[in-house]
Specification:
This protein has helices spanning 20-31, 43-53, 65-72, 98-126, 148-168, 186-191, 195-203, 213-224, and strands spanning 11-15, 35-40, 56-59, 80-83, 131-135, 174-180, 235-238. By secondary structure, it is of the alpha/beta class. The chain has one domain: NAD(P)-binding Rossmann-like Domain (Rossmann fold, 3-Layer(aba) Sandwich), CATH 3.40.50.
């Protein structure tokens, strides 16, 4: 996929930037001329990414409200935000604990909301008609075994997207979600290497394959761009047709 976007002169914050979809998004944005602040917990990986792309690394734990407050005390306004930080603690519904449920919600839902709050305030104060993209999941749209907390957190993220769309729209700020299927990050390749686990999952996808990170990053760039200037409040499945069944 080689779609071209020009983000010259624009400043974009990407959370969850040290690996997977977040990392690929940073790479694509930097190649498209954006000034990118790449945020994640892994300082070593951020340093490598900065050397590779020219992004500005920011060590940030979105699951910690204090870390968010501290980071934004010295950050300026952004033209765009990609909320990509996320965790997945998979367990059966009958085995779900308060600690695991709260841990997933703290990062995937609360963290995304708090980061978006700061970025939106900065956009409004600077008069920026910006764009926010939340990286959700097909798990917000369908029920998946062993995904109670994760499904709930991503459904909450989509609800956050809709509320932000309504409240920020009058300021010219667009807010959307992307909802990918299994995406072949290095961790996912390992997790889905067993054919006994992989094949039933693939049978549910009409295209009969999982997504590549770039196939998620490119729609994110589209939603950040002026090409999507009338799109807001959308939860966009990037799932090869999985949720169409």
């Amino acid at each position: 996929m080689n779609a071209h976007f020009d983000f010259s002169g624009r400043s974009i914050l990407v959370t969850g930037a040290s690996s997977g979809i977040g990392r690929t998004t940073v790479e694509r944005l930097c190649a498209s001329g954006a000034r990118v602040v790449a945020a994640a917990r892994n300082a070593a990986e951020l340093a490598r990414l900065a050397q590779q792309t020219g992004c500005e690394p920011l060590v940030l734990d979105v699951g910690d409200p204090g870390s968010i407050d501290c980071a934004f005390a010295s950050l300026g306004a952004f033209d765009g935000l990609v909320n990509c930080a996320g965790v997945a603690l998979l367990e059966r519904a009958l085995d779900t604990t308060a600690a695991s449920f709260d841990g997933v919600m703290a990062v995937n839902a609360r963290g995304a909301a708090l980061v978006a709050r700061y970025v939106a305030r900065g956009m409004i104060d600077a008069g920026i008609a910006g764009s926010i993209v939340n990286v959700s999941s097909q798990a917000s749209l369908v029920a998946l075994d062993d995904h109670l907390g994760y499904c709930a957190s991503k459904a909450a993220m989509d609800a956050i997207t809709r509320v932000l769309c309504v409240e920020l729209g009058p300021h010219g700020i667009r807010v959307n979600s992307v909802n990918p299927t299994v995406t072949l990050t290095p961790m996912a390749v390992l997790a889905w290497s067993d054919p006994v686990k992989r094949e039933p999952a693939l049978q549910g996808i009409p295209l009969h394959r999982f997504a590549e990170p770039d196939e998620v990053a490119q729609p994110i760039l589209f939603l950040l761009s002026d090409a999507a200037s009338m799109i807001s409040g959308v939860a966009l499945p990037i799932d090869g047709g999985y949720t169409a069944r």
